[in-house]
Design brief:
This protein has 469 residues and is α+β, with helices and mostly antiparallel strands. Helix content is 23%, strand content 28%. The chain contains 10 helices and 22 strands. A hairpin with a 6-residue loop joins strand 19 (386-387) and strand 20 (394-395). Bound molecules: adenosine-5'-triphosphate (ATP). Adenosine-5'-triphosphate (ATP) binds at residues 15-16, 18, 24-25, 52-53, 56, 58-64, 100, 121, 124-126, 150-151, 153-154. Adenosine-5'-triphosphate binds next to helix 5.
Length: 469
Amino acid sequence: MLYNLNSNIFHLGIDDTDSNEGLCTTYLGTQIVNLLLDYQVLFLDFPLLIRLNPNIPFKTRGNGAIAFRFILDQSRVDSLWSDLIKIIEEFSDIKAAETHPGMVLIKGEIPTFMKNLYSKALNELISLEDVKKELKEDNNIRLFFLKKGRGLIGASAAIGSTLDQDYTFELIAYRIKDNWGDKKRLIDKKTVFTADREEPLTISNIDNDHGDIMILPHGPDPVYCGIRGETVKSVVNMWRSLKVFEPIETLMIYRTNQHTRVHFLTDSDSNNIHPFQSIISKGEVIESPRYIEGAHVIFSLKIDENIIDCAAYEPTKKFRNQVMGLHKGDILQVCGGIRAHEQGKSLTLNLEEFTVLYLKTEFKYLTPKCPHCNITLKSAGKNSGFKCKRCSFTAHKKYYIKLQTPRVLKPNVRYVSPVCAQRHLTKPIDREVSLQFHSFNETSFSEQFDDFLNIREDILRNIINHKEN
Ligand code: ATP
């Protein structure tokens, strides 16, 4: 298709189409890509999978919204818009009580309020009314929503996410419709471990601590598996190496903010900590960690004048041992989600990671040993020194050996919950140098996505042959 003076840049955002009973917003995204291909748009980027505040109460699973950026001839927009609405109606689980789909289409520049909304939606609870007030339909903004239309929040925030700093990729494979539901996902697990080892630029696809694979979801949704990585090549290579024992309908690659820790970039206002926030803050341990019922670990932290409980819950497994290594007096940076408030109780932070900024030095005082026999001296009585029981060596005054107590934790190291308990936005400890991979992109995302679409059928055939062999 030729792009002429009538062509415009469009940004499309969609959210809240699935439920715990089925469907998936990223699967709906594959239908959108097919439709946009029919309209011969020029994709400016991969489809975006944007994770928002993991602590909001309405999320189905991972609080993910999707967005698309493309160029299209203005004369075709009305027709595209009505086709998009048909897709939302067909592929949303509208019967589910908590599904409230929302779709936003923007022409031209991304409005500043959407960029600001993205930043805020990463760690705050946003009011739908506030977003609806900002979203006034005009020549440049089209809106569609069903039921309460809560999806307009995620849809607008996803448009506002420019992902111009850090980002990762996820290749998602979708099951054929006959296999949706509770059918077990079939795969040769060994090939997942091998592929993961051979592709160092993949991320969090294996939980090495517990020897588990992380790429298969467990719900009734259409997703067969999701492979995460720093580069398109890494996720495609890993997919090609897997032995898949069921038919696959299609594949999609999303560019995402997963594993970038973008929800913890700026310090939270310590005087306004409230439920459903994701916060990053500094404080002092004022009560040492202890185990409570359910094998959760809890300690008290003083952030300015406020005291909050910090919890490492049972599913965070060995992370709890690291938390147990904290002592009263340590000064920390903590990151995590504030849980819903129980009346009369202090706020609880669901700890995702911490860094010790000041490790309290502690000493213990030991009774000296006999310089001749090397056995611990005994008191020679009140107001006297020490005496050796074996050789009668005497120290006339009591004195003690001051020893620094060794600490297990190290200062300025990020301690992060293990892969099995991580949020989508959590940055794993071994992903500190991620940006270096991104500065070498020679081709634009537009070209890379085009390349992927060109090889997509080929990779699918590959996998099917794999199965038959
Ligand atoms: P999945 O991960 O399976 O796609 P989900 O976990 O993203 O599902 P949704 O069904 O999309 O869950 O529901 C999340 C809802 O919360 C959406 O309506 C979205 O617009 C809204 N939302 C997202 N972020 C915020 C936020 N920070 N404050 C308030 N609402 C939000």
